[in-house]
Protein backbone atom coordinates (compact mmCIF):
# COMPACT_ATOMS: atom_id res chain seq x y z
CA UNK A 1 0.00 0.00 0.00
CA UNK A 2 2.77 2.44 0.96
CA UNK A 3 6.14 2.61 -0.74
CA UNK A 4 9.00 4.75 0.48
CA UNK A 5 12.54 5.67 -0.47
CA UNK A 6 14.98 8.49 0.21
CA UNK A 7 16.70 10.71 -2.30
CA UNK A 8 19.03 13.28 -0.82
CA UNK A 9 17.28 15.16 1.97
CA UNK A 10 13.77 14.13 0.92
CA UNK A 11 11.89 11.00 1.99
CA UNK A 12 9.42 10.00 -0.74
CA UNK A 13 6.26 8.36 0.64
CA UNK A 14 3.84 7.12 -2.01
CA UNK A 15 0.28 5.89 -1.65
CA UNK A 16 0.74 2.98 -4.01
CA UNK A 17 -2.57 1.35 -4.78
CA UNK A 18 -3.44 2.87 -8.14
CA UNK A 19 -6.02 0.22 -9.06
CA UNK A 20 -8.15 1.58 -6.18
CA UNK A 21 -7.13 5.22 -6.67
CA UNK A 22 -4.92 4.79 -3.57
CA UNK A 23 -7.90 4.29 -1.26
CA UNK A 24 -6.79 3.73 2.33
CA UNK A 25 -7.40 0.59 4.37
CA UNK A 26 -6.73 0.23 8.11
CA UNK A 27 -3.41 -1.41 7.30
CA UNK A 28 -2.59 1.35 4.83
CA UNK A 29 -3.25 3.99 7.48
CA UNK A 30 -0.84 2.27 9.86
CA UNK A 31 1.80 1.96 7.13
CA UNK A 32 1.46 5.64 6.26
CA UNK A 33 1.84 6.73 9.88
CA UNK A 34 4.92 4.53 10.29
CA UNK A 35 6.53 5.80 7.09
CA UNK A 36 6.19 9.43 8.16
CA UNK A 37 7.11 8.92 11.81
CA UNK A 38 10.31 7.03 11.00
CA UNK A 39 11.60 9.44 8.35
CA UNK A 40 15.02 10.88 9.21
CA UNK A 41 15.04 13.37 6.34
CA UNK A 42 14.07 17.02 6.92
CA UNK A 43 11.31 16.82 4.28
CA UNK A 44 8.77 14.11 3.44
CA UNK A 45 7.10 14.23 0.04
CA UNK A 46 3.69 12.52 0.10
CA UNK A 47 2.09 11.66 -3.23
CA UNK A 48 -0.16 9.11 -4.91
CA UNK A 49 0.66 6.58 -7.60
CA UNK A 50 -1.21 6.65 -10.89
CA UNK A 51 -3.91 9.15 -11.75
CA UNK A 52 -5.11 10.05 -8.22
CA UNK A 53 -3.66 11.41 -5.02
CA UNK A 54 -6.07 9.47 -2.82
CA UNK A 55 -9.74 8.55 -3.10
CA UNK A 56 -10.08 8.43 0.69
CA UNK A 57 -11.16 5.43 2.72
CA UNK A 58 -11.66 2.18 0.85
CA UNK A 59 -15.46 1.97 0.76
CA UNK A 60 -15.39 -1.82 0.46
CA UNK A 61 -13.68 -1.87 3.85
CA UNK A 62 -16.07 0.73 5.26
CA UNK A 63 -19.07 -1.39 4.24
CA UNK A 64 -17.81 -4.29 6.38
CA UNK A 65 -16.68 -2.30 9.42
CA UNK A 66 -17.68 -3.65 12.80
CA UNK A 67 -16.25 -0.69 14.73
CA UNK A 68 -16.66 2.68 13.03
CA UNK A 69 -15.19 4.56 15.98
CA UNK A 70 -11.96 2.57 15.85
CA UNK A 71 -11.60 3.22 12.11
CA UNK A 72 -12.19 6.94 12.62
CA UNK A 73 -9.65 7.07 15.45
CA UNK A 74 -7.14 5.12 13.35
CA UNK A 75 -7.38 7.70 10.58
CA UNK A 76 -7.11 10.51 13.11
CA UNK A 77 -3.93 8.98 14.55
CA UNK A 78 -2.40 8.82 11.08
CA UNK A 79 -3.30 12.44 10.34
CA UNK A 80 -1.77 13.49 13.67
CA UNK A 81 1.38 11.53 12.84
CA UNK A 82 1.70 13.55 9.64
CA UNK A 83 0.95 16.84 11.39
CA UNK A 84 3.36 16.20 14.27
CA UNK A 85 6.18 14.59 12.29
CA UNK A 86 9.63 16.06 12.86
CA UNK A 87 9.95 16.39 9.07
CA UNK A 88 8.18 19.04 7.03
CA UNK A 89 5.54 17.07 5.08
CA UNK A 90 4.75 18.28 1.58
CA UNK A 91 1.70 16.84 -0.18
CA UNK A 92 2.12 16.66 -3.96
CA UNK A 93 -1.47 16.44 -5.17
CA UNK A 94 -2.06 15.31 -8.74
CA UNK A 95 -5.57 14.17 -9.63
CA UNK A 96 -8.41 13.62 -7.16
CA UNK A 97 -8.05 14.09 -3.40
CA UNK A 98 -11.33 12.98 -1.89
CA UNK A 99 -12.61 12.42 1.61
CA UNK A 100 -9.90 10.80 3.70
CA UNK A 101 -7.36 11.60 1.01
CA UNK A 102 -8.13 15.28 1.41
CA UNK A 103 -7.95 14.85 5.18
CA UNK A 104 -4.45 13.38 4.96
CA UNK A 105 -3.45 16.34 2.79
CA UNK A 106 -4.93 18.75 5.34
CA UNK A 107 -2.52 17.37 7.93
CA UNK A 108 0.50 18.15 5.74
CA UNK A 109 2.52 21.33 6.18
CA UNK A 110 2.36 22.29 2.50
CA UNK A 111 -0.19 21.25 -0.12
CA UNK A 112 1.13 21.71 -3.64
CA UNK A 113 -1.24 20.84 -6.48
CA UNK A 114 -0.93 20.30 -10.20
CA UNK A 115 -3.49 21.94 -12.51
CA UNK A 116 -5.18 18.51 -12.79
CA UNK A 117 -5.80 18.22 -9.04
CA UNK A 118 -9.32 18.30 -7.62
CA UNK A 119 -10.69 18.25 -4.10
CA UNK A 120 -13.86 17.18 -2.36
CA UNK A 121 -15.49 15.92 0.83
CA UNK A 122 -18.22 13.77 -0.77
CA UNK A 123 -19.18 11.81 2.36
CA UNK A 124 -22.64 13.34 2.73
CA UNK A 125 -23.63 12.01 -0.69
CA UNK A 126 -23.43 8.43 0.57
CA UNK A 127 -24.25 8.85 4.24
CA UNK A 128 -20.88 9.64 5.83
CA UNK A 129 -18.61 12.60 6.60
CA UNK A 130 -14.90 13.27 6.98
CA UNK A 131 -14.02 11.76 10.36
CA UNK A 132 -10.22 11.69 10.07
CA UNK A 133 -9.97 15.23 11.39
CA UNK A 134 -11.78 16.78 8.44
CA UNK A 135 -14.40 18.62 10.45
CA UNK A 136 -11.59 20.03 12.62
CA UNK A 137 -8.81 20.97 10.20
CA UNK A 138 -10.86 22.09 7.19
CA UNK A 139 -12.63 25.06 8.88
CA UNK A 140 -9.39 26.09 10.57
CA UNK A 141 -7.68 26.18 7.21
CA UNK A 142 -10.26 27.70 4.87
CA UNK A 143 -12.74 29.27 7.29
CA UNK A 144 -16.19 28.18 8.34
CA UNK A 145 -18.11 29.31 5.25
CA UNK A 146 -15.98 27.46 2.71
CA UNK A 147 -15.66 24.41 4.98
CA UNK A 148 -19.45 24.17 5.29
CA UNK A 149 -19.84 24.66 1.55
CA UNK A 150 -17.51 21.76 0.76
CA UNK A 151 -18.68 19.44 3.53
CA UNK A 152 -22.44 19.98 3.29
CA UNK A 153 -22.78 20.01 -0.49
CA UNK A 154 -20.19 17.34 -1.27
CA UNK A 155 -19.14 19.28 -4.34
CA UNK A 156 -15.76 18.92 -6.03
CA UNK A 157 -13.51 21.93 -6.67
CA UNK A 158 -10.57 22.37 -8.99
CA UNK A 159 -7.07 23.54 -8.11
CA UNK A 160 -7.79 27.20 -8.88
CA UNK A 161 -10.73 27.33 -6.48
CA UNK A 162 -8.75 25.42 -3.87
CA UNK A 163 -6.00 28.03 -4.13
CA UNK A 164 -8.53 30.84 -3.72
CA UNK A 165 -9.87 29.19 -0.57
CA UNK A 166 -6.41 28.71 0.89
CA UNK A 167 -6.81 24.95 0.78
CA UNK A 168 -3.54 24.60 -1.15
CA UNK A 169 -0.35 26.64 -1.16
CA UNK A 170 0.51 26.68 -4.86
CA UNK A 171 -0.28 25.24 -8.27
CA UNK A 172 2.62 23.89 -10.31
CA UNK A 173 3.29 21.22 -12.90
CA UNK A 174 5.97 19.68 -10.66
CA UNK A 175 5.10 19.70 -6.93
CA UNK A 176 8.18 17.62 -6.14
CA UNK A 177 10.33 20.65 -6.93
CA UNK A 178 8.83 22.46 -3.92
CA UNK A 179 9.79 19.56 -1.66
CA UNK A 180 13.37 19.61 -2.92
CA UNK A 181 13.60 23.40 -2.57
CA UNK A 182 12.24 23.22 0.98
CA UNK A 183 14.81 20.55 1.88
CA UNK A 184 17.53 22.98 0.76
CA UNK A 185 16.84 25.20 3.77
CA UNK A 186 18.61 24.87 7.12
CA UNK A 187 17.31 21.62 8.60
CA UNK A 188 17.36 22.74 12.23
CA UNK A 189 15.53 25.95 11.37
CA UNK A 190 12.92 23.98 9.43
CA UNK A 191 12.18 21.72 12.38
CA UNK A 192 11.95 24.57 14.90
CA UNK A 193 9.82 26.71 12.58
CA UNK A 194 7.36 23.85 11.99
CA UNK A 195 7.14 23.27 15.73
CA UNK A 196 6.37 26.93 16.36
CA UNK A 197 3.75 27.14 13.62
CA UNK A 198 1.87 24.17 15.08
CA UNK A 199 1.80 25.53 18.64
CA UNK A 200 -1.79 26.26 19.69
CA UNK A 201 -1.12 27.32 23.27
CA UNK A 202 -1.75 30.86 24.55
CA UNK A 203 -0.12 33.76 22.70
CA UNK A 204 2.15 34.51 25.66
CA UNK A 205 3.31 30.89 25.85
CA UNK A 206 3.86 30.78 22.10
CA UNK A 207 5.88 33.99 22.14
CA UNK A 208 8.09 32.73 24.97
CA UNK A 209 8.72 29.48 23.09
CA UNK A 210 9.35 31.44 19.90
CA UNK A 211 12.01 33.56 21.62
CA UNK A 212 13.68 30.45 23.06
CA UNK A 213 13.72 28.72 19.68
CA UNK A 214 15.17 31.81 18.02
CA UNK A 215 17.89 32.01 20.66
CA UNK A 216 18.73 28.37 19.94
CA UNK A 217 19.15 29.19 16.26
CA UNK A 218 21.26 32.29 17.01
CA UNK A 219 23.64 30.14 19.07
CA UNK A 220 24.26 28.07 15.94
CA UNK A 221 24.13 30.90 13.42
CA UNK A 222 27.03 31.65 11.09
CA UNK A 223 26.77 34.60 8.75
CA UNK A 224 26.58 33.46 5.07
Automatic annotation (TrEMBL):
Transmembrane segments: none
InterPro entries: ClpP/crotonase-like_dom_sf, Enoyl-CoA_hyd/isom_CS, Enoyl-CoA_hydra/iso
Matching PROSITE patterns: ENOYL_COA_HYDRATASE
Gene Ontology terms for molecular function: catalytic activity
UniProt similarity note: Belongs to the enoyl-CoA hydratase/isomerase family.
Name recorded for this polypeptide: Enoyl-CoA hydratase
Species whose genome carries this gene: Halalkalicoccus jeotgali (strain DSM 18796 / CECT 7217 / JCM 14584 / KCTC 4019 / B3)
